[in-house]
């Protein structure tokens, strides 16, 4: 089934011009359906709008890609800019969104045990008798919006699972290399969405696209995320070379999987990487997921640049999902550590950053002068003895750009100077795997892959083509000094082994996108973090572990890194919480996860950022998630769909629901009942209103006391400061006064964010929320 035998064809993307008649895809969004039309009437209604700007009925029908019918009221169609402008001016139209593929892209043996979940054996008949309250997610349907699924993986076996839930309304859509038998009692539904992709890139071509026109996953990304969230328990899973050996399991192994393939390989790429996801395709997928009856939607996809909610297809779709009490988790993005880079910032989405776990793949590097250092490696290739050591810049082909000579880019090394040697290559331009391939092409026997200062001490693990040692910037400097001083430098790379309980953990990853929320700084994002570095999960049989087409290796499981990997961890935890608390709202589940999160590592010290300093809430949100604690949070900050509509009034995201109109006096965005507080440009006292609901684990009577660690330069007080409850479900309102301290005005720089927290504590619970404040 591998696609590597397919020969790529030249594929020319039509150039967009400034011509007003140049057609492109737009999404015309009307908001919420009124519920007074049948499905065929909805499509006719959408056609009527197209007919008003098109020259004929035939042209109107042929221009329509999708008519969103289940919850989202809108359509996607080919329009000229002039036609789009005319539609945008019509009374019922909320927004017209220009689609562009570069806006969206796709961003485990140990990880679940690390966060406190120890799964029992779930094979055979025993799965009919789950022993924990969460029932391993049994009865919950998780929709994964991604690049498809590899159904043959053992992670998606339906052995011992009961009938498909009666509430399920979805289908098993067939296509290339995917038939109805590929759906089962685990993969209960599968669909794919390609109309928007084809409008941009042209008619789908299997050879050029190296993809399947079906729900099948050519890439590995979709299978990896799906198995992390809901994969079955599989004994003896490991990456190539036996790394991370153990029993792989998703967080909710008995939850059902619904596949929505809306991300596709870019045509004519040298590797299966950087899937592209069109807004119109994703919105159609979310609309179908709502209609199909999923309980959770997992979206490891985000924007390269943050978008206003009214222009963000994921945000729009997620709001409609939340109305039907579907919980949506999405990845924060991989553009860190630069601030203000996170995607999926809407408050009705659970936004997930990436942290580490306590597993490392430890190898070793020994230099001829005796210097020895531990390194990271999952490379199966081994060295038998010491070999000469060279720096890439000293063995590069003449004419290579000066700043790239050290980076082992394709065809940059001179074989006569590299053959039989170990090469020090620096990260920067080009892929990490590609650098190892270049060393191998030139005849090298090993590679030392050195982090730049921008990469810091964070080292992803890759399955390289030569013996490899990945090292930090400090080690790079020592190696360079050795090469300069010694006339005959030599090196030996020791093979890696899997090491558990590596401390300290968790740490924040450098790549995880950071706040503040540039769409609305009154909402603190990300919400939470979960493991996202070097995660083992299921892989596609059509892709190699390196994701390079020239790599013919096949892996059932692979180690992969990104917030794409952290998001399904939270999605799996959400499925467990939905099984325990089926009546909890999406907001209640988010609150439970956030207020019970870890702020400290396994050494009981603050979780560190890439700088070595304590990570702030713009990096880790409320902290590292703890699913076992989230099941009993004590109190929750709940929020209804109408509360989000009211919040939308404060940011200009209005007229979504025909039954709701913004009030004349709109409350500030920071008064949305959120489990965190963010106030930009504070210059006085601001009063923040919140409401908590008692969900204590059978404790109908409880008393909570307020405490806070105020951000530098402000004071934080609550009124009342004591909350007493006498029944489950009881709500209590309180106010938090955040005041600039005049005696500290010169201590903190204006515009610079400062951080703190507040909490409510009783005998059994600590309900903690982060605070971010900047002074005007």
Automatic annotation (TrEMBL):
Positions annotated as active site in the UniProt record: 146, 221, 564
GO biological process entries: proteolysis
PROSITE patterns found in the cross-reference section: PROKAR_LIPOPROTEIN, SUBTILASE, SUBTILASE_SER
Signal peptide per UniProt: 1-22
Every Subtilisin-like protease fibronectin type-III domain range: 671-773
Start and end residues of each PA domain: 387-476
Gene3D superfamilies in the cross-refs: 2.60.40.2310, 3.50.30.30, Peptidase S8 propeptide/proteinase inhibitor I9 (3.30.70.80), Peptidase S8/S53 domain (3.40.50.200)
Keywords: Glycoprotein, Hydrolase, Protease, Serine protease, Signal
Any single GO CC term annotated in Swiss-Prot or TrEMBL for this entry: extracellular region
GO molecular function annotation: serine-type endopeptidase activity
Peptidase S8/S53 domain ranges (all copies): 137-603
All copies of domain Inhibitor I9, residue ranges: 25-103
Similarity field: Belongs to the peptidase S8 family.
Protein name: BnaC09g18640D protein
